[in-house]
Amino acid sequence: MLCVVKEFTFDAAHNLVSYKGKCEKLHGHTYKLQVVVCGERDEEGMVIDFIELKRIVQEHVLSVLDHSYINEILQQPSAENIAEWIWNRLYPHLSTERYRLSEIRLWETPTSFVIYSK
């Protein structure tokens, strides 16, 4: 089995409403998103075309999250909850007989990230 990995960035603001600390105040991040799709190669030798993967992520995730106030999308937009939301948006489009979404990695800062997989 092979895995195809593509990285993206997006900018967004949020505040953690069920949190006591400086992150309860409105602030923003440049998030880094890594999408991992694993499976078998097709007749062209690819698991999934990078262009197709980019289109799916752009259409179903980045078009919603980039330059957004994430609290309007998620009640408690922790990195963990955002990663799960991204998984749920992508999984129906990245799950076929030949390949499937394997993992989401979401960096909130350059040194802090969440891994979501099922």
From TrEMBL:
Record: active site: 23 (proton acceptor), 67 (charge relay system), 108 (charge relay system)
Enzyme Commission numbers on file: 4.-.-.-
UniProt key word Nucleotidyltransferase: no
Comment on bound cofactor: Binds 1 zinc ion per subunit.
Cofactor(s) it depends on: Zn(2+)
Residues annotated as binding Zn(2+): 14, 27, 29
Keywords associated with the record: Lyase, Metal-binding, Queuosine biosynthesis, Zinc
SUPFAM superfamilies documented for this protein: Tetrahydrobiopterin biosynthesis enzymes-like (SSF55620)
Molecular functions per Gene Ontology: 6-carboxytetrahydropterin synthase activity; metal ion binding
Pathway the protein acts in: Purine metabolism; 7-cyano-7-deazaguanine biosynthesis
A Pfam family matched in the record: PTPS
GO biological process: tRNA queuosine(34) biosynthetic process
Cited NCBIfam families: queuosine_QueD
Family: Belongs to the PTPS family. QueD subfamily.
Protein name: 6-carboxy-5,6,7,8-tetrahydropterin synthase
